[in-house]
Amino acid sequence: MDHRLIFLDIDGTLLPPGDMLIPESTLAALDCAKANGHRLFLCTGRNHRMTEPLLRHGCFAGAVCSAGGYVLCDGKTLVDIPMEPQQAKGVRAALERHGVECTLEARDATFGGVKMTQRWSFIHQKNGAPLNSEAERWRKAMEEGMSILPLSDYKGEPLYKIVFIADHESDLAEAKRLYADQFVFCESKLDSLTDGFVNGELINRKFDKGTGIKAICDHLGCTLADTIGFGDSDNDLQMTDVAGISVCMANGSETLKKRCDRIAPSVYEDGIAKEFKALGLI
Predict the structure, then answer these.
(1) What is the mean pLDDT of residues 15-27?
(2) Among the listed residues 32, 64, 35, the one whose alpha carbon sits nearest the alpha carbon of residue 47
(3) Mean pLDDT over all residues of the chain?
(4) pTM score, two decimals?
(5) Is the pLDDT of residue 9 over 90?
(6) By C-alpha distance, which of 164, 239, 175, 237 is closest to 7?
(7) How many other C-beta atoms are found inside a 10 Å radius of the C-beta of residue 33?
(8) Alpha-carbon distance 226 to 222, whole Å?
(9) What angle do CA 117, 250, 274 make, to 5 degrees?
(10) How far is the first Cα of the chain from the last one, in angstroms, to the nearest whole number?
């Protein structure tokens, strides 16, 4: 296969949701793909702070962080688009008026409240089944304290993304009415729950994972036909829709599977390494 730019979602794709250690077999596949001349990039909803430990592996040339709001390539910042302060304040208030719990993602910190931690723990105990990858990541982060600062520590740092969890989809109605023209409400129903819980994230309409990929292609003088995108959840749609070859993990959402060119084995079954081999990358 000709040299490709390979974009990898993290949670539920590169590694199990909420984990920080890449499995050895996956890391070996990444290193082999790099040695074969391919360039590897993380493409994630995680902010830079939560992505940076993985970037320390020498196989990665950069990353699309914060779902496209912060993009790095070869040590250079290509995209840096935080929310406008009043915009962030307004949409957060519209959510909180209806009891929607939020975490706030700046570039180098994530802020979450005590109620958010309690809600994730409650849902996991009640559900008793695997959550979607974003929900599982946040449940794990909240329970283990992974890079989460108290909401009281937030001092107005520029925000790139707001993650939310609502008791009912209707609790999002006011925020959607006021801000749907400015944000994509990327929502996921919590698996096997029947009483309306919704988790998701607000992604600024000024960017998405797809625009992040385009920025890297432009910087490197490559075309989208040269790219391969790997994902597992609905927040990967903008990535896989622009990629030359789109791949959904077997553990991924049904929506994404229908839109992708290929389905790789599960993240729990050495899926990246196996799909790299199937694609002729290694």
Answers:
(1) 87
(2) 64
(3) 88
(4) 0.86
(5) yes
(6) 239
(7) 25
(8) 7
(9) 115
(10) 9
Question: Is the model's pLDDT at 92 over the cut of 70?
Answer: yes
Reply yes or no on whether the pLDDT at 141 is more than 80. no
Three-state DSSP at 157 gives: coil
Cα distance between residue 75 and residue 228, in whole Å: 21
Q: Cβ of 80: how many Cβ atoms within 10 Å?
A: 14
Residue whose C-alpha is closest to residue 174's, from 86, 85, 92, 104: 92
Alpha carbon distance 119, 101 (integer Å): 8
Lookup: tokens for 143: 């329970």
How far apart are the C-alpha atoms of 212 and 41, rounded to whole Å?
11
d(CA 220, CA 41): 13
Nearest CA-CA partner of 265 in 232, 222, 220: 232
Please, are residues 197 and 123 in contact by the beta-carbon 8 Å criterion? yes
Largest CA distance in the chain: 53
**Amino acid (1-letter code) at residue 12:** G
The total number of residues written for the chain in this structure: 282
